Amino acid sequence: MIKAGIMGATGYAGEQLAWFLYNHPMAEVEFYNSHNYAGVPYNEVYNNFYSFIEDICVDMETAISKLSNIDVLFIALPHGKAFEITEKALALGVKVIDLGADFRLNSKEVYEAWYGVNHEGEHLLENAVYGLTELNREAIKHCSLLANPGCYPTATILALTPLLKNKLIDVNSIIVDAKSGVSGAGRSASIRSLFTECNESIKAYGVAGHRHTPEIEQELSKAADENLVISFTPHLVPMNRGILSTCYGSLKKAVTTEELLELYRDFYKDNFFVKIINGLPETRWVRGSNLCHIGIKVDTRTKRVVVLSAIDNLIKGAAGQAVQNMNVMFGLEETTGLKLIAMAP
Amino acid sequence: MIKAGIMGATGYAGEQLAWFLYNHPMAEVEFYNSHNYAGVPYNEVYNNFYSFIEDICVDMETAISKLSNIDVLFIALPHGKAFEITEKALALGVKVIDLGADFRLNSKEVYEAWYGVNHEGEHLLENAVYGLTELNREAIKHCSLLANPGCYPTATILALTPLLKNKLIDVNSIIVDAKSGVSGAGRSASIRSLFTECNESIKAYGVAGHRHTPEIEQELSKAADENLVISFTPHLVPMNRGILSTCYGSLKKAVTTEELLELYRDFYKDNFFVKIINGLPETRWVRGSNLCHIGIKVDTRTKRVVVLSAIDNLIKGAAGQAVQNMNVMFGLEETTGLKLIAMAP
Amino acid sequence: MIKAGIMGATGYAGEQLAWFLYNHPMAEVEFYNSHNYAGVPYNEVYNNFYSFIEDICVDMETAISKLSNIDVLFIALPHGKAFEITEKALALGVKVIDLGADFRLNSKEVYEAWYGVNHEGEHLLENAVYGLTELNREAIKHCSLLANPGCYPTATILALTPLLKNKLIDVNSIIVDAKSGVSGAGRSASIRSLFTECNESIKAYGVAGHRHTPEIEQELSKAADENLVISFTPHLVPMNRGILSTCYGSLKKAVTTEELLELYRDFYKDNFFVKIINGLPETRWVRGSNLCHIGIKVDTRTKRVVVLSAIDNLIKGAAGQAVQNMNVMFGLEETTGLKLIAMAP
Amino acid sequence: MIKAGIMGATGYAGEQLAWFLYNHPMAEVEFYNSHNYAGVPYNEVYNNFYSFIEDICVDMETAISKLSNIDVLFIALPHGKAFEITEKALALGVKVIDLGADFRLNSKEVYEAWYGVNHEGEHLLENAVYGLTELNREAIKHCSLLANPGCYPTATILALTPLLKNKLIDVNSIIVDAKSGVSGAGRSASIRSLFTECNESIKAYGVAGHRHTPEIEQELSKAADENLVISFTPHLVPMNRGILSTCYGSLKKAVTTEELLELYRDFYKDNFFVKIINGLPETRWVRGSNLCHIGIKVDTRTKRVVVLSAIDNLIKGAAGQAVQNMNVMFGLEETTGLKLIAMAP
User: Fold this and answer.
1) SS3 for C32?
2) How far is C196 from chain A (nearest CA, A)?
């Protein structure tokens, strides 16, 4: 059995990790860390685990003392909080899967410019592997420090990579208009995330300045083999879960929707979790699963292509992909514990 | 492998049956019947099954022709539609699990009075077993025709049976004020179930006349060992899933909340799916699971007890309990394929 | 013009006061007080007022300094916070309408037992008038200190008073099962009011202990002319606005639904805002209005009556009724500025 | 008093017309037409009007017979249904305000290509005036046949016109990613609009083929003074009301956000209903009002501008603008009966 620790287990991504690992046939959780709920039974924070998980949440100090008992450490902490514990874990031979942003960007400078905090782990960056499993599987197999992708980047990079790898769109024409459920805002008390402030409304936020922008650009630039910038606009939708990423690009040559569907199906043919569908994706068809649904439509009038991808932001966009990466890092079947079909309605 | 057929597979209960059976290690689906979608790929109706289920929905005639290939027939049709196919299936030695109301009431007369249609299977009633698994397990083990309970009855009967069995409340004092998500209204086109008609509102319906009333009364009368009538008021809540049943009864003697919690825990101690919690249940903590959470509060001022139970109406209130019953009927471990923890948030 | 001040203008009840008073033909707001947003433009807190209200929120000290400029002070502060400013305002001849609980209960002891804070204004209680306008209009006309009713009490007392005044139900048989939208929880940062914690779920809270219980009992006891206790269970529903109160009582004699409808219509015949409807109320039909819809159903099987009432908790349950009371206190037409029809869908 | 008739009064746009006209000081409704509810009291369809509107819905024939009694006919029928009654009304000197699509497009051919039905009123097109009030006020004053804009076009054209009039963006760079509440789908029984099918999900629809595309292009081409095509992608959001239109364009020269804010404020300075806000619009701040909130952000990295506009799709996007146009057509103050501030929360 793989022994795991979860840092930040009482946030939503942490809770989803607990959910997946509880039923994972090859892994078990050694400790559930929580800053705000240290000393509280985990199932009092999340009553869905009542009678299933009997552990008490532990503080950072206790978590650190247990690092030598585990094989893998999942970190679901706010950005800037992963550096120290990552270093300690790696030193003990513990593999680290960070669900935050601290090791996603290859450049310390870019990180500091967008996140506004010092990067205290620059020396770790060169060995950190960006964990978009479908696109980086080989490197993931051998890594010790995995940077689990952001939710918007996961949906967006999966949607656009085949186009860029095949030089089908103008790299500077990309506009990504994305929509997320409210769980993306996390589980901290704030007025702007109240039911009454989110329900019956939609808004954009972080226009031209959201922190997932450089992450998407970094990975798309690799796919395109040239540097590119994108317009990225996230929106908040009154639902708990789900991301829909609507991606626009200008086609460099005439191509049909059917040709692109075939190209995408071929590109992702060995990837269980990416499904190229015939129509348009809806987040409800992936909610509760680790799947990414992708739909494509060529607009001959404007010579643009619209690629839409849907994921569950807490699963393929966070905890599910983290477990998928754990499976790869430990040589397990990639889909172990993750073969859930979306729960509808 | 148990071979199963699903009648009415494109309704919500049918879809949940497909969902559970797809992952069930000891069962597989032989056909998916649908009146409205015969000839249509099942995964076009429910895109969550894209690339998982490739079957085409079949009509009633085709379903009948396949009865001899299956071991169990799940029926998720509107009331009044189960009689003929049940008879045919039983004649072929196929076990039948009816998720509708046609075999729940022991009395043809009561059925006809509340449902307004003729009962065309009176001769089948004496062998039909009411499938509230926790309360009727022995009979279920040996039955061929199982009447799967309604959603409100499941939540309510589980909540009140320990009180009645122990003669703790006045049998004629019971008031059940229940609340359900909109999936309880089914998947048929109707204006009153439109998003815009349900969202941002709550209403009662069927006050003093809902069809689940005689079903609840029948089973609670058995528990009380005397005939009783209840006030039952269902409400429609703007959410997809979940039932909360708030049950009131007048205590015949002084008893504390703690004593009742202990009594309930003892009563349900060998039942995996019923959890007596310490606080108050919320439907989100059981959504996506086959669990029933029960909370209890004695009001010393009014000498009443309030028992609250929460289930997922499509799972413990429909498809999950149906699979639970299948497991019992076929001698499998009762929890097979059903050990899901609620998906939160 | 009536000059008004609003204490606690950035809470939801305060915002609704601002909304009504902005368009009120005979009143205008002199200051908007806010503890957390003092110094901030009011329309930055509530963007719906952008370009309409240009005032800056003022702190308590400033508000006090402006008391001599106003005719009426609306107080929408947490309980326990109204005593001092009420005293100051009354001393200056300013009429006070308190939307909180501080002057609703006639007994200092009952207040302290249920609210857990000292009552620092006992001497004011004897002149405080309970402002359920329809039932107390004469007293309201002449009062200087008005205790605006709670949201649940408004819906419930309007629903049950005709039955009690006419001695039609057993006074100790009353069960009130009420459901509220999330705005009832107010606008303060708390995890339990997050979108993701409220959406797709229903729960009861404060079972057998909610603070509106003694308020309802006090007023219903007056109607019944004898002391009574009730079972009161509030529930939280995933919607912004609305209260539905489902009230049960045991009939002392046989009476038909039609007879009760007639009795209620007669009882409320001179009250614009109370509508006795033919079917069952839904909160959406009163949302955005100061109306109370009441529906009635006699259950001959159980000899109980079910009375259901629906209001907008922020309007008839708070700010709308406060303005209605202001109109009465200042001799205006009672419906001035309040003749809104519910906004649907 | 202006006497009005409403065709299609039981759809959502029709209901909103009834809502506005009920309180309009200078207009009154002579008849409420409904195909499905002819003979039914209007307030049984919409209980919010209980005790306010006592009219019975009338069928088409009756409506036609009453044309000579009215001054203005509002038509809120499905596309293709307005031709005959419009002709009849105009012949009687009745002004017509059509909320549907039948007279919005200047070209019969474009209409038939996008709507798939014959245009039976081509001779009326030359006198039809496109009723985006802010941009076409002079023509509206003198017209008899007004084509009320679509919901998406209203939000989008208001957002982009100042940029195009000032030649600030590349006309062929425009991408409009819009999001609408479910009321945009109308009030007809369909599975895809059920609560359970829309809630907790977001999807795009009509990608590269939505019928509002040519309407937007027609009006933006006029603003730009050259023909242009756009990419337009509408999305369905789980809320009742609201449209957010996120519009992207490539800047032809460097310009700051502040400069654009000033330019927009100047452009709309005499228009009560258009508000250029400082931050980003949210649909909740305009819900229930006839306002359009516009926010602007220049992205210097990509040299694009993002303009976001929010409206209530049923008000500024339908009935509110129709009443605004009626006011202009009849020489009333444009804001008569429309000075509502958004209802929040």
Assistant:
1) strand
2) 5
